[in-house]
Design a protein that fits this description.
Blueprint: H1 3-7, E1 14-25, E2 28-35, E3 40-46, E4 50-54, H2 57-67, E5 73-81, E6 91-98, H3 104-114, E7 121-123, H4 129-137, E8 144-149, E9 154-158, E10 174-181, E11 194-201, E12 204-209, H5 213-227, E13 231-234, H6 237-251, E14 275-279, E15 282-286, E16 296-299, H7 305-321, H8 325-328, H9 333-347, H10 365-371, E17 377-378, E18 383-385, E19 388-393, H11 396-403, H12 437-458, H13 462-486, H14 496-519, E20 523-528, E21 531-535, H15 541-555, E22 559-572, E23 580-589, E24 594-597, H16 608-621, H17 627-649, E25 660-663, H18 676-686, E26 696-701, E27 713-715, H19 727-742, H20 749-765
Parallel strand pairs: 10-13, 13-16
Antiparallel strand pairs: 1-2, 1-8, 2-3, 4-6, 4-7, 5-6, 8-9, 10-11, 11-12, 14-15, 17-20, 18-22, 19-21, 19-22, 20-21, 22-23, 23-24, 25-26, 26-27
Helix pairs in contact: 4-9, 7-9, 7-13, 9-12, 9-13, 11-12, 11-14, 12-13, 13-14, 14-15, 16-17, 16-19, 17-19, 17-20, 19-20
Length: 766
């Protein structure tokens, strides 16, 4: 028995699961637990957040004299840590125990000024306190623990592991909060009164309405308190619903009684408008966090992980990456993945730099030309193909990073200049004395994901199979991000040299695989980074299995069969005739499953009506099993297109099925030209709607060629029942979707238009 257990053996331990963790005072953290008996218990723990400062010994001595009487400092001392994660040696640093962790950033900026911004480097400064607490205590959300409360300190005995895949989740109570607003204008405003409130839980719905607005709000508070949910789901809770509720409570003079948390803390909707950021060449807007205390608020319109992988996926990444549930629900994939890297560093005594200053190594123009090339691609061979198999590497980039120990501190390390492991083409040495932070992080993620995929095949229980699928899907997104983060300028443990090294290994791996394929008589139809499309007449499953086994052995990464196609069509560019597009194809697997990439039906901005038309055409073409059969089905596919065109011409289409979705790359005033999304944004702005770059916007095209911009489109929020759509513009979209599918068979948009509209005229004449 450990010392703390012997000391507090007479205290009653609490056995249960961690639900929520958050800072609640200058040196304290509040923890909510779900006990095994179902009780929800609030505990408070004293917690000192420690930051570290490196510099020369004399500078640190002078600094300690200056800051020892600071009200932000609780303790001072020296510690041995890995201050520079690029080096293998520890060094002595100044350890500062913060008396008030809310003042950490202010104190850190003050220290930097003392050193003229050059003498001192600071560490562990901007780690969120809730995450720092989880790292320090070596626990994680929804971990099963035995907790002892000594009065001012909590002691944990972890009865769980973040590596487990068969963990038990406590029975979580959930509730959906919906509010109907009595709109006075065309769209909802804070000044509009509440019409009714509905709460859905335990397969029943409670309606609150018919009385005064004040009474409805108070009944909402009482119902939430009585039912005591662990999770409250909302639509647009962060961006509108919670600020709206707070405003209506303020108007009715009961803001101090609007308590939806387990804590006796009224709901506050601060004035933050969220943030707009740029990622992977796209602008995004993130609504601000509106959190509850002791409960988890999930805004389903402001969460990626929950949308992509459900509650099971959210819990999985929260446990594995040690991020509180309410944070994981809103955080980017990169931020969640970074948390696991931070934890790995924390447990290995590696300090986390506050301001990253690790530069890219110098490269000549020739070295840049060789190094900065990305993944390898084989252009697709246009047209219709049979006897095709698609194979791809399982988590190729993460697996290569793990196998070859790719991390910022391991690539071109100074301790192993003669390393036997070299980066292909570049010749960079890779460390042989230590395992990098990134590979250590990836090892757990890969191990768990492969285990979940294995369990999915083994289990017969559909509910369990679905849970495993959601969990592996969530981990997949984390693994996808880890490669990009290696080259991200603000990544704590990223470096461009490591990023381009993994690209070099990937190119080398794909080329080696292609050689094996060609030696076995396969024709390379297409290849893109980690996937290959191979063609061979009369190809057998045994041949494919043998090839995958040999390639996997050569590369050290599993090569899996995605499937064999009954047929596949690689589509050309619409701008440059005869030029292939790298990721535009559609095909039919032998099991009857369709696969589409790069066509209108896969694009998020395509109206639902156009998507449905294109998919129906593909389903008709899917009845064919040969080239001749496919060609014979084209007239039937065009007949389907004609039916959709007829619906447009006769105005039999719901305008909501014609909504075009676009993401704003600028603020409304930032657009120089009146493109449709700019007009839509300005329409909303004129009516008082808050519009930010990065937000998605939907509109219907009403008169594309009108001289008056406002008449060209109508934004979704302002749609009237009598709105008329631009038939010709949507016909153009429809025929363009047809050209995407049939262009390789010499069906241009104009040819499709002439044939379809000619049929339409003939029908009308009859």
């Amino acid at each position: 028995m450990s010392d703390w257990k012997n000391t507090f053996v007479k205290l009653d331990p609490i056995l249960g699961w961690l639900l929520d963790v958050y800072p609640s005072g200058p040196d304290e953290v509040t923890v909510w637990m779900i006990a095994e008996n179902g009780e929800r218990i609030k505990l408070v723990d004293n917690f000192t957040h420690r930051i570290y400062i490196s510099g020369s010994f004399s500078d640190l001595k002078n600094l300690s004299e200056k800051i020892k009487d600071s009200k932000s400092v609780g303790s001072l001392g020296l510690a041995e840590k890995y201050a520079d994660f690029m080096k293998v040696e520890k060094k002595k640093v100044l350890e500062v125990g913060m008396s008030n962790h809310f003042r950490t950033s202010f104190f850190a900026r003050k220290v930097r000024r003392f050193g003229g911004y050059e003498r001192f480097r600071l560490y562990n400064v901007d780690i969120p306190i809730s995450q720092a607490y989880l790292y320090e205590k070596d626990i994680f959300p929804l971990a099963r623990v035995m907790t002892v409360d000594s009065g001012n300190r909590l002691y944990y005995d972890l009865l769980d592991s973040a590596e487990k895949v068969d963990y038990q989740i406590p029975p979580l109570r959930s509730m959906w909060l919906n509010i109907t607003i009595n709109k006075k204008g065309q769209f909802q405003q804070l000044t509009d009164e509440i019409d009714s409130i509905s709460l859905e839980f335990d397969q029943k719905t409670v309606f609150i309405g018919g009385g005064s607005e004040k009474g409805e709000i108070l009944k909402l508070v009482n119902t939430v308190k009585k039912e005591d949910p662990d999770i409250i789901f909302t639509h647009s809770g962060d961006s509108f619903l919670f600020p709206y509720l707070a405003y209506r409570a303020f108007v009715n003079g009961i803001l101090d009684k609007l308590i939806l948390s387990r804590e006796n803390t009224p709901l506050r909707a601060n004035k933050s408008q969220g943030r707009t950021f740029f990622s992977y060449r796209r602008v995004y807007h993130k609504a601000p966090l509106r959190r509850l205390y002791g409960r988890i608020h999930i805004d389903v319109d402001n969460t990626f992980i929950y949308t992509a992988s459900g509650l099971e996926g959210l819990i999985e990444v929260s446990r594995t990456c040690r991020v509180p549930l309410h944070t994981a629900a809103r955080a980017s994939i990169g931020s969640i993945m970074s948390s696991l890297q931070l934890y790995t560093a924390w447990k290995n005594n590696i300090l986390i730099p506050w301001k990253k200053r690790e530069p890219e190594s110098f490269k000549s123009a020739w070295e840049l030309l060789v190094a900065d090339r990305g993944g390898f691609i084989f252009e697709p061979k246009l047209g219709f193909h049979t006897d095709v198999v698609e194979v791809d590497f399982a988590s190729m980039f993460p697996m290569l990073m793990l196998k070859h120990n790719i991390s910022a501190e391991t690539v071109q390390c100074k301790c192993c200049p003669n390393s036997k492991t070299k980066v292909p083409e570049l010749g960079y040495n890779i460390c042989e004395k230590r395992k990098g932070i990134v590979p250590k992080t990836l090892e757990l993620l890969l191990k768990k994901r492969f285990k979940y995929k294995s369990l999915m095949k083994e289990t017969q229980e559909e509910k369990l199979k679905q849970a495993y699928n959601m969990r592996q899907s969530a981990l997949k997104w984390i693994l996808v991000t880890c490669f990009g983060y290696l080259g991200y300028r603000n990544a704590r443990f990223g470096k461009v040299d490591a990023h381009i090294s993994i690209c070099a290994f990937a190119r080398d791996s794909l080329l080696k695989t292609v050689r094996v394929a060609e030696e076995r008589g396969f024709e390379i139809l297409h290849g893109i980074v980690d996937s290959l499309w191979l063609k061979k007449p009369g190809i057998s499953p045994k041949e494919v299995a043998g090839f995958c086994e040999e390639a996997s052995k050569n590369i050290g990464v599993p090569l899996n069969v995605e499937g064999k196609y009954r047929w596949i069509v690689f589509a050309p560019s619409k701008i440059l005739e005869g030029v292939p597009v790298l990721n535009r194809y559609y095909g039919l697997f032998e099991n009857g499953q369709l696969k589409m990439r790069g066509i209108e039906a896969r694009r998020s901005d395509t109206p639902h009506f156009i998507c449905k038309a294109q998919i129906d055409m593909i389903k008709k073409l899917a009845e064919a099993s040969s080239l001749q059969g496919f060609v014979d089905k084209i007239p039937e596919a065009l007949a389907i297109l004609k039916n959709y065109a007829e619906m447009l011409i006769k105005k039999h289409v719901d305008t909501h099925d014609l909504l075009v979705t676009k993401r704003l790359s600028k603020s409304p005033s930032g657009y120089a030209h009146n493109v449709f999304q700019a007009i839509a944004a300005k329409q909303l702005e004129k009516t008082g709607f808050e519009v930010h770059s990065g937000q998605t916007i939907q509109y219907v095209i009403t008169n594309a060629n009108s001289k008056k911009p406002d008449q060209r489109i109508s934004v979704m929020q302002l749609l009237r029942q009598d709105v008329k759509y631009d038939t010709q513009e949507y016909l153009n979209m429809l025929f363009s979707a047809g050209e995407t599918l049939l262009g390789v068979f010499r069906y241009s948009k104009q040819k499709i238009r002439d044939e379809v509209l000619h049929r339409e005229k003939q029908t009308l004449l009859k």
